[in-house]
């Protein structure tokens, strides 16, 4: 038998390509997420050119929010300029209705290039459709593509390509007063409901051969129609160029489109490639010995790269990235805790943007606190522009009764404000950008501390400061007292206030005193000094376990599978009054998250005992969960136990193995926090990176991984880190 071999070049290419072969209509929604392309201002789902809103096509405009009537406020989806329909001898080709003999969809992670190739059999004619597209990184909102068609026999071909203005929305329709224009380019214009923002999509094509064409309109589509007789084995097709405008001058959009047509696909892609090459230069992580882990982590990093806010300073990253309207397109604590570490290491401009977003949202956080009768800054659980909280009091639908379920994400997850302060301090410690404190970060810290003073409760008989009526990371147990994670954040925030008080008294006392006077903060500052050491921090019990919240240990003991088997419906919501509410089963890492974020405060033995206690009780119903257990698994010397948890995080968008519904609410989309968690596990867990005044590592590689290598930006210098089973190297390298 001849042995199969693969060249070094082929192997290198393989480790950058995510590919699926064969057509499966049940995977259409998943592939839309898996093969997503774009950047922070434009997301294009990985759907076929002939698909419509029924297949969840989305040209997504992150952070362009709109609300229709009393429905949920969410970012909008624009009109789709990629729609293409092909007829051969009068018969429409579509994998949904035609005979497919070969189908392959792939994503080149190096350049965000989507490639779709489908071979049909129509009578005895074999027809190949081959499409490529990318979101142009040289422009704000532009899509460039190629579409090819060839037949193994002569045939009559009809191509209709243009703009589909029948848009998929979760809570729309968002675009009304629709106008269509046929010249100088295909154009569809619409206006949002709430703020009357003007959305424009324009498209033109360049055919490979000269074909007569005309503009037609049918089924809510504005199309260029061409018809010709194709010769056997000859390739036909077109280059396509699209621009999307949000309140942009239409003449400027026409000018951009004209330049794109003049440059052509190849020239635009060459410039686009250079930007991506630079992005990967510092972001790539190479894993040797485990190809699956290597590709999976690279795919996770790809998702973090397409979300980099460095081109859009002051913006942050939605919890479902740019994959659609799920979770109202809002920013959660995911960004600060799970994604920021990646940018701190590889793209510190993006890291700063994440912090600036929260500074910009301070007034919104203060308004939210005031709406609940509190002082200070209560940050939005689902943050949209300017800190507006899009979260509702009824964020889940009961799949059995169809009724809305009262949830407490918005009003009781007060840890979100502490998460913001945690991120600010992490950013400053890494970058040494103390100027950002004067640019609003210190005011954020002080106002969060003021909110925590007002929300918490001093209990005189116990002489301690407690935190009642909250929801921790584990969202299944509502309105609990003294959640260990939340209490630890309260103490941390008060400590950060004292830390920067001492800093400014030495470095710029005048600025500090002026800010304290401006904010009327003398009394809060005294109370912080008084209560900082009185905040109730839960200690280990006789077995070394930290109770997640008051009376957690009194809840019903049940095995996870036994609880899940009690469900009437697979999408049944388990939290609150659901099946998990009176049990010890938790949605996601809670105490374990606290142990990782505050790892310097706990012994390894405590981490191990709590890992072994809580992990079997954790559903991992959130994509945030697995990475925290993986990180602690590495810290307790169990990298092989951590490995499947790492892979769960790294592959969640490759496999589609994640929750698609919370109760009756669709929550599908990509999971960038899981991507960030996978990166953290590889770098801080397996490689054992520690960042202090100097970089150091304590390798804890699982048995399948021989080596991990990566770059780190630290204190203005770039380092190459290579970690093997028994040794490592850290070398300073030059920036290109």
Description of the structure:
This protein is α+β, with helices and mostly antiparallel strands and 736 residues long. It has a domain at 8-283: Distorted Sandwich (Beta-galactosidase, Chain A, domain 5). The protein contains 20 helices and 30 strands. The protein has a nine-stranded antiparallel sheet with strand order 1-8-9-10-11-18-15-14-13, with helices on one face. A hairpin with a 6-residue loop joins strand 10 and strand 11 (142-151). The two termini are 47 Å apart. Mean pLDDT is 95; it is low at 1-7.
Q: What structural class do the secondary elements suggest?
A: alpha+beta
How can the largest sheet be summarized? 9 strands, antiparallel
Shape by Cα distribution: globular
Mean pLDDT: 95
First-to-last CA distance:
47 Å
Query: Radius of gyration, rounded?
Result: 27 Å
Number of strands: 30
Q: Do you know the CATH architecture of the domain at 8-283? A: Distorted Sandwich
* Uncertain ranges: 1-7
CATH class of the domain at 8-283: Mainly Beta
- Per CATH, the superfamily of the domain at 8-283 is Glycoside hydrolase, family 65, N-terminal domain
**Strand composition percent:** 15-25%
Quaternary: single chain
Task: Spell out the blueprint of helices and strands.
Elements: H1 8-14, E1 17-21, H2 28-34, E2 37-39, E3 42-44, E4 59-66, E5 74-78, E6 80-88, E7 91-92, E8 100-108, E9 113-122, E10 125-135, E11 142-151, E12 155-164, E13 175-181, E14 186-192, E15 198-207, E16 213-218, E17 221-230, E18 236-246, H3 250-283, E19 286-288, H4 291-305, H5 334-346, H6 348-360, H7 362-371, E20 396-397, E21 404-405, H8 409-412, H9 415-431, H10 435-455, E22 457-459, E23 464-466, H11 484-507, H12 509-518, H13 522-531, H14 560-564, H15 591-597, H16 604-614, H17 625-635, H18 639-650, H19 652-655, E24 661-662, E25 665-666, H20 672-686, E26 689-691, E27 695-697, E28 707-714, E29 717-724, E30 728-733
Antiparallel strand pairs: 1-8, 2-3, 3-4, 4-5, 6-7, 6-12, 8-9, 9-10, 10-11, 11-18, 12-17, 13-14, 14-15, 15-18, 16-17, 19-28, 20-21, 22-23, 24-25, 26-27, 28-29, 29-30
């Amino acid at each position: 038998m001849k042995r199969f071999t693969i060249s070094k070049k082929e192997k290198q290419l393989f480790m950058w390509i995510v590919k699926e072969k064969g057509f499966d209509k049940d995977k259409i929604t998943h592939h839309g997420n898996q093969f997503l392309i774009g950047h922070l201002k434009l997301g294009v789902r990985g759907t076929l050119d002939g698909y419509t809103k029924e297949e969840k096509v989305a040209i997504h405009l992150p952070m362009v929010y709109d609300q229709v009537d009393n429905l949920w406020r969410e970012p909008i989806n624009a009109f789709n300029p990629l729609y293409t329909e092909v007829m051969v001898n009068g018969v429409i080709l579509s994998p949904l209705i035609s005979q497919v003999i070969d189908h392959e969809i792939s994503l080149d992670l190096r350049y965000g290039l989507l490639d779709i190739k489908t071979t049909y059999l129509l009578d005895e004619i074999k027809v190949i459709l081959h499409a490529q597209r990318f979101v142009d990184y040289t422009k704000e909102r532009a899509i460039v593509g190629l579409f090819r068609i060839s037949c193994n026999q002569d045939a009559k071909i009809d191509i209709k390509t243009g703009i589909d203005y029948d848009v998929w929305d979760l809570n729309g329709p968002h675009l009304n007063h629709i106008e269509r224009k046929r010249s100088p380019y295909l154009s569809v214009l619409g206006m949002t409901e709430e703020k009357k923002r003007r959305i424009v999509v324009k498209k033109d094509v360049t055919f490979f051969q000269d074909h007569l064409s005309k503009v037609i309109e049918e089924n809510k589509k504005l199309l260029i129609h061409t018809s010709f007789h194709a010769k056997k084995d000859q390739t036909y097709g077109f280059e396509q160029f699209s621009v999307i405008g949000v309140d942009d001058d239409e003449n400027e959009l026409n000018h951009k489109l004209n330049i794109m047509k003049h440059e052509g696909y190849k020239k635009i892609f060459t410039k686009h490639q250079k930007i991506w090459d630079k992005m990967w230069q510092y972001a790539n992580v190479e894993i040797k010995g485990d190809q699956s882990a290597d590709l999976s982590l690279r795919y996770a990093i790809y998702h973090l790269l397409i979300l980099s806010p460095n081109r859009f300073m002051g913006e942050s990253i939605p919890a479902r990235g740019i994959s659609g309207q799920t979770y109202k397109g809002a920013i959660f604590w995911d960004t600060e805790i799970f994604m920021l570490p990646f940018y701190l290491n590889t793209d510190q401009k993006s890291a700063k943007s994440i912090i600036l977003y929260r500074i910009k949202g301070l007034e919104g956080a203060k308004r939210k606190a005031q709406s609940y009768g509190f002082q200070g800054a209560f940050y939005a659980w689902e943050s949209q522009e300017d800190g507006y909280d899009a979260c509702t009091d009824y964020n889940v639908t009961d799949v059995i009764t169809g009724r809305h379920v009262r949830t407490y994400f918005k009003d009781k997850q007060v840890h979100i404000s502490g998460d913001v302060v945690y991120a600010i301090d992490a950013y400053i410690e890494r970058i040494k950008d103390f100027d950002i404190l004067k640019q609003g970060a210190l005011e954020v810290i002080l106002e969060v501390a003021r909110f925590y003073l007002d929300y918490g409760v001093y209990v005189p008989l116990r002489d301690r400061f407690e935190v009642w009526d909250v929801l921790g990371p584990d969202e299944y147990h509502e309105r609990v007292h003294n959640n260990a994670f939340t209490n630890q954040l309260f103490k941390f925030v008060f400590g950060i206030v004292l830390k920067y008080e001492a800093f400014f008294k030495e470095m710029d006392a005048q600025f500090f005193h002026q800010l304290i006077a401006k904010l009327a903060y003398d009394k809060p500052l005294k109370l912080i000094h008084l209560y900082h050491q009185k905040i109730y921090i839960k200690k280990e019990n006789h077995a070394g376990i930290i109770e997640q919240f008051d009376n957690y240990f009194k809840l019903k003991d049940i095995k996870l599978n036994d609880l899940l088997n009690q469900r009437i419906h697979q999408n049944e919501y388990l939290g609150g009054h659901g099946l998990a509410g009176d049990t010890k089963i938790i949605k996601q890492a809670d105490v374990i998250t606290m142990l990782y974020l505050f790892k310097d405060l706990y012994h390894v033995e405590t981490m191990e005992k709590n890992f072994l206690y809580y992990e079997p009780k954790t559903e991992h119903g959130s994509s945030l969960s697995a990475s925290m257990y993986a990180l602690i698994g590495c810290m307790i010397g169990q990298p092989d136990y951590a490995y499947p948890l790492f892979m769960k995080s790294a592959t969640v968008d490759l496999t589609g193995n994640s929750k698609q519904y919370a109760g009756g609410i669709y929550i599908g989309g990509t999971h960038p926090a899981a991507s960030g968690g996978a990166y953290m596990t590889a770098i801080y867990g397996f490689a054992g990176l520690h960042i202090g005044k100097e970089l150091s590592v304590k390798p804890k590689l699982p048995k399948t991984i021989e080596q991990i290598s990566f770059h780190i930006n630290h204190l203005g210098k770039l380092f190459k880190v290579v970690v093997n089973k028994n040794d490592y190297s850290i070398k300073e390298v030059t920036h290109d």
